[in-house]
Amino acid sequence: MTAAIDTVLQGALLGGLYALFAAGLSLIFGIMRLVNIAHGDLIVLAAYIALVVVQATGIGPIESLAVVVPVMFAIGYVLQRGLLNLTLDRGILPPLLVTFGLSIIIQNVLLEGFSADSRKLQAGAFETASLRLGADLAVGWFPLLIFVTAVAVIAGLQALLYRTRLGRAFRAVSDDPEAARFYGVDNRHLFALAMALALAVVSIAAVFLAVRTNFDPAVGPARLLFAFEAVIIGGLGSLWGTLAGGIILGVAQSVGARIDPAWQLLAGHVAFLLVLVMRPRGLFPRAVD
Amino acid sequence: MRAALLETHGLEAFYGDFQALFGIDVAIAPGETIAIIGANGAGKSTFLRAVCGVLAAEPGRIRHRGSAIGGMPPDRIVARGIAMVPEGRRLFSSLSVEENLRIGADVGRQGPWSLERLYRLFPVLAERRRAAPTSLSGGQQQMAAIGRALMTNPELLLCDEVSLGLAPVVIRDLYAALPAIRAEGTAIVVVEQDINQALQVADRVYCFMEGRVTLSGTPKELSREQIRAAYFGM
Ligand SMILES: Nc1ncnc2c1ncn2[C@@H]1O[C@H](COP(=O)(O)OP(=O)(O)OP(=O)(O)O)[C@@H](O)[C@H]1O
Ligand SMILES: [Mg+2]
User: Fold this and answer.
1) Interface membership of B92 toward A (CB under 8 Å)
2) From ligand 2's centre to the CA of B150, what distance in Å?
3) Does A180 contact B52 at a Cβ distance shorter than 8 Å?
4) In 10 A of CB A98, how many CB atoms?
5) Yes or no, beta carbons of A186 and B73 under 8 Å apart
6) Per-residue pLDDT tens digits for B52-108
7) How are beta strands A130-132 and B6-15 bridged, if at all?
8) What's the CA-to-centroid distance between B86 and ligand 2, angstroms?
9) Among B108, B91, B109, which residue's Cα sits nearest to residue B100?
10) CA of A182: which chain B residue's CA is closest?
11) What ipTM does this complex have?
12) Could you give the CA distance from residue B215 to residue B198 in angstroms, rounded to a whole number?
């Protein structure tokens, strides 16, 4: 029994990381209907930026976020304003092709710059410290931190979208970009801000990923896949749904791995397909679309 | 006529290679109400879209208080006090009625219009403030669309076919709000297919046909025959 609880608990905490991978993707899709194929590679890029900062300054990985978040925020703004905005309003293919190209470029640049060796960030004793919950049950402080951060990030994005003037403008521009322009909402600027925000969240996900596991320039597409699955399970455009999607994916992987370690990823994909078959629009689809 | 609030000189507009406006001259004085009438496809909406900056135009072809504003981005045009009530209302469906109104207020212009003032003009919107715009009746949606534009505190309000698809009693209610808006000194452009409605409310009328102004004048000056000829080209 404890083993079962442990499996689900660890899976749910892992789901927090997937939700962080997915939150940016969900935000971008929700606001500008852009499917960013390079999302996973941007996570990896942020991880390498964190690596450079940590190596150059000697600060810890979590502290490096003070640099990585603003840098990724700026990259997001420029990327959207300078490139991706040009691909919108031209059908679904151009944004897919351009972000696919971007994905390949990022992978190759990272390969050139950092080689294919796998890297990891060290967060010291904190990485392995755990909180004892019962006789045979413990949760790591680090996975707990990831999960709490994921909930906080999603609650923060939700509050931004539904309680602030900027959020109102984001939702208006998502409903009708042209009509929004009549009321002074500059869609190019807002789309750029949305991408900046998404990449700020990506930075947090990236640092957690880099502390948790090894990474190399080629691991981006697999993170994209997890993010996609979390978003689709939760229902397109719903941020809380994305958190639920991440948790379901994490629990499925954890249960799969418990049965047979080789089944970890497969179990996640099967859970994804099951949800898709039973609820094609995900668990919490947005009412209006 | 007093110095113009807004004037266009030889305004042309294009959709790709297709030319929709061929040199439009229109002048609107402060506080004046003008109507633009014309058949389907005459270029009425295109004219309004060029004025509020969503369609490219040569700078000097549109002047607001003397300065060239043609092709200026729409956020700067609305900040100057030119607000659009678009054809088909185009409320933001994932925003509540009140949030739609706040989008207008977010432009940040000072003036007579506030939520309280607007709810006095359209009391039914106060009752439905938390509702989704899609749950409102057509007339209520149109009130919200007009309200959203008024909340930008415009000195020029552009209304594109506000009566489209509405029952006559509802149209009468909407037009009943016009005097209160004019009383604030706001100039208004109404685009109407319904010629009688247009003649009733307007100080002056322009008739468009195939991207050109075919007739203009005060409702008194214009005879039915002239209007029919300008409207249908026969
Ligand atoms: N987005 C567009 N792309 C290409 N052509 C367009 C577009 N919008 C309008 N047109 C064309 O421009 C011309 C003027 O259209 P416009 O919408 O300004 O007419 P209108 O007077 O507003 O008509 P209605 O009474 O039907 O609203 C028409 O020939 C129309 O087909
Ligand atoms: Mg029209």
Assistant:
1) yes
2) 20
3) no
4) 18
5) yes
6) 999 999 999 999 999 999 999 999 999 999 999 999 999 999 999 999 999 999 999
7) unpaired
8) 9
9) B91
10) B74
11) 0.90
12) 14
Give residue B20 CA to ligand 1 midpoint distance, Å: 7
Q: Indicate if ligand 1 lies below 6 Å from the C-beta of B38.
A: yes
Q: Which residues contact B129 (CB under 8 A, 6 or more apart)?
A: B96, B97, B98, B119
Long-range (24+ apart) CB contacts under 8 A made by A28-32 are: A28/A194, A28/A195, A28/A198, A29/A231, A29/A236, A29/A237, A30/A174, A30/A236, A30/A237, A30/A239, A30/A286, A31/A170, A31/A171, A31/A173, A31/A174, A31/A190, A31/A191, A31/A194, A32/A88, A32/A173, A32/A174, A32/A191, A32/A194
Residue B36's SS3 state is: strand
Query: Mean pLDDT across chain A, nearest whole number?
Result: 94
What predicted TM-score, i.e. pTM, was given to this entire model?
Answer: 0.91
- Contact status of A174 with chain B (Cβ, < 8 Å): yes
Neighbours of ion ligand 2 (CB under 5 A): B 45, 87
Q: What is the CA radius of gyration of chain A?
A: 19
How far is it, in rounded angstroms, from Cα B230 to Cα B232?
A: 6
Residue B6 phi/psi, 5-degree rounding, is -140, 135
Nearest alpha-carbon partner for B26 in B10, B2, B50: B10
Question: On the CB side of A170, how many CA atoms lie within 13 Å of its CA?
Answer: 25
| Adjacent-strand bridge partners of B159 | B85, B190
How far is B119 from B155, CA to CA, in rounded Å?
20
Number of alpha helices (DSSP H) and beta strands (DSSP E) in chain B: 10, 10
Ligand 1 neighbourhood includes B43 CB (under 6 angstroms): yes
Does B110 contact A at CB distance below 8 Å?
no
Domain ranges of chain B: 6-91+155-232
Q: What is the mean pLDDT of chain B?
A: 94
- Tokens standing for A179? 């009509």
Phi (first) and psi of residue B190, to 5 degrees: -110, 130
Question: Is the confidence at residue B138, as pLDDT, over 80?
Answer: yes
* Contact assessment for residue B185 and residue B30, using Cβ atoms and an 8 Å cutoff: yes
What's at A14, amino acid-wise? L
**Alpha-carbon gap, residue B233 to A94, rounded angstroms:** 44
Q: Which of B53, B95, B152 sits opposite A172 (nearest CB)?
A: B95
Query: What residues of A are in contact with residue B94 (Cβ under 8 Å)?
Result: 171, 174-175, 286, 288
C-beta neighbour count of A31 within 10 angstroms: 24
Report the distance separating Cα B100 and Cα B150, nearest Å. Answer: 11
pLDDT at B2: 55
Residue of A203, A245, A178 lying closest to A26 (CA atoms): A245
B6-91+155-232 CATH: 3.40.50.300
